[in-house]
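Lab notebook, design round three. We kept the backbone fixed and only want residue identities now. Task for the bench partner: fill in a sequence for the structure below.
Input structure tokens:
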């Protein structure tokens, strides 16, 4: 028998919350109007002008399909930007200038403000030297990266434009299984393509993450057709309101064959607001590892009061779970009154909040129901929020590098400097494309690693707030830079 390769074409994920009544930025519009019957035309008309085509350009070597390595939360799936050269012949390699970026990826994005803010997938813009955005009216703009979040595979970019047609955000939590939805994007480079389907399932988990790491876990599943190029596009209801960012397909070929997945707006709004307001995502942690309750486990533990939920396996010190008094074998069934039947739903609910927010957890212990309230903490066990302008003073983004690049350069880890602007790195002489392998003798492999080391340096009582960064350029030349983090008055 032939071995079937399961490819999940990835495209976007993560979202918002009820606390947006106070903190939701002005560039996100929301609506609660009832849906139409089965009229797709109004939804399509409202959406097509808010969805853009994103072309990524890079001078670095890419794989044959233009799929840039990096974000692979499940370790078994491929991205689905699409091959930009599908019907175009590239110049022979020897005729291309090494310093001139070539198109390496093709994806979609959604306009969320009149002045040019666009949400897309992190993997669509990852490793790009240049981003080009094509609007539905065929006007073209170069985009800059505002911020990225690898854990949710979301990114916020901006073009210099005014008077655009932003999408209206809907409520992904109110979406029902069986409801009609439209997917809008640029499959295979065909701009403003609309496909229809129904919501097949909610809070769909595609990975095997049960260790408490709040990464992608809660998708909206639909049978709307998605193909390479749909990454980062819109999933909308029949009001034309955004309910998700199209994210992945379940396929043996890399093209559509039945199931598609989208990141719910409950997550998208939260991540976009954090990036816009703070420059980085504020991620809250409950602080306990859990396993999903099933009939076998319930019988083993003598649990009869509930048939589903998240069984607490262990509790971390200095955590919200510890403050709440959660213990091993407690069964979490709701967060702030919203039921959580599985791990995916628990992750989605916690991802709505920031460190410092209050939550109420409903759980069972010895078949008796309890409710307790506590304050969410971050991964360091406190409620500190990284303010915009702190970590961002470095003046660049940090992109994950592909395994091919690591192998070519003979390195095992690293992050690449992208979108360099005025800031501490530029002042130290760092150039775009530099791959950082170590900071202050500590290996780095993600944005979170860089941010953690930065925060540790800034918390130090020492007067010497300096980053010693070691790394290598794609040319193979190694450098060491001293980055001064002391601000000048």
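Proposed sequence:
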């Amino acid at each position: 028998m032939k071995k079937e390769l399961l490819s999940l074409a990835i495209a976007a994920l993560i979202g918002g919350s009820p606390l947006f009544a106070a903190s939701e930025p002005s560039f996100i519009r929301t609506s609660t109007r009832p849906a139409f019957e089965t009229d797709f035309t109004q939804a399509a008309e409202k959406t097509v002008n808010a969805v853009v085509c994103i072309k990524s350009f890079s001078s670095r070597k890419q794989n044959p399909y233009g799929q840039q390595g990096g974000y692979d939360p499940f370790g078994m799936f491929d991205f689905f930007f699409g091959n930009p050269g599908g019907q175009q012949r590239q110049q022979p390699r020897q005729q291309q200038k090494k310093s001139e970026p070539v198109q390496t990826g093709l994806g979609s994005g959604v306009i969320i403000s009149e002045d040019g803010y666009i949400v897309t997938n992190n993997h669509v813009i990852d490793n790009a030297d240049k981003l080009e955005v094509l609007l539905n009216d065929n006007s073209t703009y170069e985009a800059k990266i505002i911020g990225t979040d690898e854990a949710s595979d979301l990114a916020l970019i901006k073009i210099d434009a005014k008077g655009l047609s932003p999408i209206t955000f809907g409520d992904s939590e109110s979406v029902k299984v069986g409801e009609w939805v439209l997917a809008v994007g640029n499959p295979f480079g065909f701009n403003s393509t609309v496909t229809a389907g129904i919501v097949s399932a909610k809070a769909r988990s595609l990975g095997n993450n049960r260790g408490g790491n709040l990464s992608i876990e809660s998708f909206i599943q639909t049978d709307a057709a998605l193909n390479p190029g749909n990454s980062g596009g819109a999933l909308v209801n029949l009001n034309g309101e955004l309910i998700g960012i199209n994210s992945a397909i379940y396929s043996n070929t890399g093209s559509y064959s039945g199931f598609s997945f989208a990141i719910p707006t409950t997550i998208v709004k939260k991540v976009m607001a954090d990036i816009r307001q703070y420059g980085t995502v504020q991620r809250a942690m409950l602080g306990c590892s859990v396993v999903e309750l099933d009939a076998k486990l319930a019988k083993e533990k003598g649990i009869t009061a509930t048939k589903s939920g998240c069984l607490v396996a262990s509790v971390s010190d200095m955590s919200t779970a510890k403050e709440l008094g959660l213990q091993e074998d407690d069964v979490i069934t709701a967060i702030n009154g919203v039921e959580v039947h599985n791990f995916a739903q628990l992750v989605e609910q916690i991802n709505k909040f920031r460190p410092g927010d209050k939550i109420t957890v409903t759980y069972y212990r010895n078949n008796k129901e309890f409710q307790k309230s506590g304050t969410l903490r971050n991964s360091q066990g406190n409620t500190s929020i990284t303010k915009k302008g702190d970590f961002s003073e470095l003046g660049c983004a940090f992109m994950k590098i592909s395994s091919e690049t690591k192998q070519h350069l003979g390195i095992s880890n690293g992050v690449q400097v992208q979108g360099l602007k005025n800031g501490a790195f530029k002042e130290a002489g760092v150039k775009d494309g530099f791959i950082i392998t170590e900071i202050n003798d500590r290996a780095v492999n993600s944005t979170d690693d860089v941010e953690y080391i930065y925060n540790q340096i800034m918390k130090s009582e020492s007067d010497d707030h300096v980053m010693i960064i070691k790394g290598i350029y794609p040319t193979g030349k190694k450098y060491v830079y001293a980055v001064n983090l002391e601000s000048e008055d």
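Keep this in mind before ordering anything: The chain is about 15% helix and 30% strand.
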